[in-house]
Structures are given as structure tokens and as C-alpha cells.
Design the sequence.
């Protein structure tokens, strides 16, 4: 070999060629090791993909180490294969430790899989959310109240885990709250962080219930610090409030026979309960308008006298009810026929009593 020969030349060009190939194949342990390596490199991403990868790699390198010790009789093959197997086992132990560190109780684990995992929320972020509620699961007995109308302050946000909650106002049923729905999302969204308020509805447990609760001040501090968690709660609360609005709309549909647009704020006052004095009058006017006009009695032409037109009272403003009624009919409903089927609705529209914002809860 010449003095000017480099190491690369020795490796690439000076390697002695194989004079003849071996006729016998390696043992089954060698081929089994290659099969494990092939399966290991087909692993996917994520935590479970790493479990799959390092498990098959560790098994494959152990098979290599046994093959080098018993069949190849090469110390270098055994040492390298054994070291690689130990590295893979160390990685597996680290993954198990990381998962054990993020294990939650059964209720919180089920909550994560139902509500947060579909949104691809990391377990580390979910751990901060659970830490904010101190990891406590609270309970409500049957017919026990979570909040009383006009008395309970709005100082927390709660999420129902099990059971069913009945929401009512003035003793009138509004809707139910089912598992994995927020119990007081409308009240939470109605207040600014610096404002105080009380519940306008009563929440009563119909069955034995369990729930988690975040203190208001603690949760506001977390939302102010973590922007991702703030956006997450904003999306969850918005979806929850829309579900409650659609539940109210379904009750209106079951009562009146037509589905209203929940974006019309004045429609709730039109469909709301009338006062005890005005409702009978409205029904009476509606019934009189439905009565067919009777034909006039025959009168001789000589007795017919033209009555002079009554002078209009001074200072009387022209009524604005037709414009208001036509506006309601064109925006909220496709035609005027549904309003005719409801006497108190027609009476209120004709009197122009629908404000631009709701004043009290509809009667369902």
C-alpha cells in the first residue's frame, strides 16, 4: 500500500473483495431481529408512536445481542447491540414516567377525553385548568339548589359532570343542564371582571349531581396569564350559551308551532307573558276581530242620512303601530298568518309594545 494512500482510499478502494459467498444463512435470531427493527421504524408520531418505536427497537437490539453472543461470536456485535437496547429501554422508562406524572382522577380523565381531547388540548394545559379548580369534585343532592334567583352571587363558574340540573325563573321551567355543560355560562359572560351580580334564575338538581367549580377571581387570573386557555374558554362558553338558546327556541317551537329566529331580541318580549289585566283584553279584541261581519238590516233609502265626519282631535299623534307590526312581520316571520293564530301576539304588535331589547323571560 503506497505512502500517499488516504484512509478514504483504503475504505473505498483497498477493501478486499469477497472471494466467495457463504452458502449457509444466519440463524433465525438474526432475521427475527431485523423483523423487529422493520416494524419499529414503521411507528407513527406522538406519545403512543414513541412507545411503539422504542419497544420494537429494544426487542430487535436484544435479539442482535443474543445472536452476536451465541452465533456470530463477536464481542463488538454483542456490546453495541446491548448498549442500543439499553438506550431504547431508558427512553421507554422516561415515557412511562411522563405519562404517570400527568395521570388524572377518573372524573377528570373522562372530562378530558370527552371535552378537551377532541379540541387537541395538551395534557399540560389541561393540568393547569384542573389545578385552578383545586382538583375537587363537588356534589349536589336531589332537589338541592345550586343558585337561588335574586340571592346567590355570581362568584364562580361550574361545569356539570353527572346528573341533571333544572333551570327555572319565577317558578317557571326554562330548560335542563346536562353533563359536560356549564351551569352558569350566561351569568359568567354577562359580567366584566370588575363587576358583581346575582343570579336571575334558580338552578335545582333533579338527580344526584357532581360538578367542578372554578372560583371567579382565580379563573380570571389564569385567563389573563394564559392566552390559549382564554381562547379555549371563550369557545367553550360561546358554544354552551348557544346550546341553551336553542333549547329555549325548541320550547317556543313546541308551544307555538313555528320556529323563531333567536337573533331577534324584540321577539322574546312579544312572546312573553302578558300582565293579568292586558291579556284578557288582547284575547277579547282578537276574538272580536275574528267574528264575521253580519249583513246590515234592510233600511229604506228615505231614512238613510249622511252623518257628518267627526272632527279629528287636536294634538293627536298618528299611530305608529302598523309600521311596527309590519316591521316585525317582515323581519321575524315569513308572513302574517302565524301572528293571527296567536291573539296576544297580535294584540301586542298592534299596540306597538315590542321594545328593541327583551325585558322579561318568555313563558314556555
Sequence:
Amino acid at each position: 500500500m503506497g505512502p500517499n494512500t488516504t484512509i478514504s482510499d483504503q475504505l473505498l478502494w483497498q477493501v478486499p473483495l469477497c472471494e466467495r459467498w457463504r452458502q449457509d444463512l444466519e440463524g433465525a435470531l438474526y432475521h427475527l431481529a431485523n423483523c423487529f427493527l422493520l416494524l419499529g421504524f414503521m411507528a407513527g408520531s406522538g406519545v403512543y408512536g414513541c412507545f411503539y418505536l422504542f419497544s420494537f427497537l429494544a426487542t430487535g437490539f436484544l435479539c442482535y445481542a443474543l445472536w452476536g453472543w451465541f452465533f456470530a461470536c463477536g464481542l463488538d456485535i454483542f456490546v453495541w447491540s446491548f448498549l442500543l437496547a439499553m438506550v431504547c429501554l431508558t427512553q421507554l422508562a422516561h415515557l412511562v414516567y411522563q405519562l404517570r406524572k400527568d395521570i388524572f382522577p377518573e372524573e377528570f380523565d373522562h372530562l378530558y377525553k370527552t371535552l378537551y381531547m377532541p379540541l387537541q388540548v395538551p395534557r399540560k394545559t389541561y393540568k393547569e385548568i384542573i389545578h385552578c379548580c383545586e382538583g375537587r369534585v363537588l356534589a349536589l343532592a336531589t332537589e338541592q339548589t345550586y343558585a337561588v334567583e335574586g340571592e346567590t352571587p355570581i362568584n364562580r363558574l361550574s361545569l356539570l359532570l353527572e346528573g341533571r340540573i333544572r333551570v327555572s325563573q319565577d317558578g317557571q321551567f326554562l330548560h335542563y343542564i346536562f353533563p359536560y355543560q356549564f351551569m352558569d355560562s350566561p351569568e359568567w359572560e354577562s359580567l366584566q371582571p370588575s363587576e358583581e351580580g346575582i343570579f336571575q334564575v334558580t338552578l335545582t338538581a333533579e338527580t344526584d349531581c357532581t360538578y367542578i367549580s372554578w372560583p371567579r377571581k382565580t379563573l380570571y387570573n389564569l385567563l389573563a396569564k394564559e392566552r390559549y386557555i382564554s381562547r379555549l374558554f371563550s369557545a367553550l362558553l360561546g358554544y354552551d350559551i348557544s346550546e341553551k338558546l336553542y333549547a329555549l327556541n325548541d320550547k317556543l317551537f313546541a308551544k307555538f308551532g313555528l320556529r323563531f329566529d333567536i337573533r331577534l331580541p324584540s321577539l322574546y318580549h312579544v312572546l312573553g307573558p302578558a300582565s293579568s289585566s292586558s291579556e284578557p283584553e288582547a284575547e277579547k279584541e282578537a276574538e272580536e276581530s275574528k267574528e264575521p261581519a253580519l249583513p246590515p238590516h234592510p233600511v229604506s233609502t228615505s231614512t238613510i242620512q249622511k252623518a257628518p265626519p267627526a272632527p279629528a282631535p287636536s294634538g293627536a299623534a298618528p299611530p305608529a303601530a302598523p309600521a311596527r307590526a309590519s316591521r316585525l312581520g317582515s323581519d321575524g316571520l315569513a308572513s302574517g298568518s302565524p301572528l293571527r293564530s296567536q291573539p296576544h301576539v297580535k294584540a301586542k304588535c298592534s299596540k306597538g309594545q315590542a321594545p328593541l331589547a327583551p325585558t322579561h323571560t318568555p313563558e314556555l
Summary: The first helix runs from residue 7 to 12. Residues 262-364 have pLDDT under 50 and may be disordered.
